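New here. Invent one.

***
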Amino acid sequence: MPEAPLLEARGLRRAFGPRVVLRGLDVVLAAGETLAIVGPNGAGKTTLLRCLAGLMKPSAGEIRLDGRRLAPQEPDSRRAVGLLSHRSILYDDLTVRENLEFAARLYGLPDPHAAAARALEEVDLLHRAGDVPRTLSRGLLQRAALARALLHGPRLLLLDEPFTGLDAAAAERLRVLLRERRPAGLGTIVVTHQVGEVWDLCTRVQALVAGQWALTEGRELPLDDFLRRYREVVPA
């Protein structure tokens, strides 16, 4: 029998009053796969990630992670998910280290101090562990938020524009982190406006337009060909 997908979402619909943002989307992700999602502003990309993270309940449809139903009202069902979003979920009155140790306790990790140190070392931020988030540059804050997303060893990692503010060295470090985790079965979904930043990482790329999939391609397609097809399906 074929292995069950890591993530399986069927018929996802999300509406805000009369405004329909997601229109019956299916999302299937295997362990070790990296899916890149591109699309114009307002296409529904961030709403989709919030639904997949269990932070927003879809108006219709179902999401399963490792075969278990993902329910926003059940925090335990979301523990296998790591999320990097536009909005940092770090507390400004705690240092970066304290933020990660607090998150580690929420996840029930046995040694919060060691877990925080490991996560900060991975993103090369140990030297700023004692700083509070509001004193960090945009790029350093992005690295701190990434450390929090990776802290508990999630099975599913959801990244919304993860390269924002990162310099070349930090961007390459992020690519290495994602590449190293793939053999262990980490599934990753990356929302980006610059698909070239993740082209060498992704196994599949999909274009979301007006809440619907407009294009799905495997990574065997050259980047220039994908961009040409993408321009054909995205309204000017």
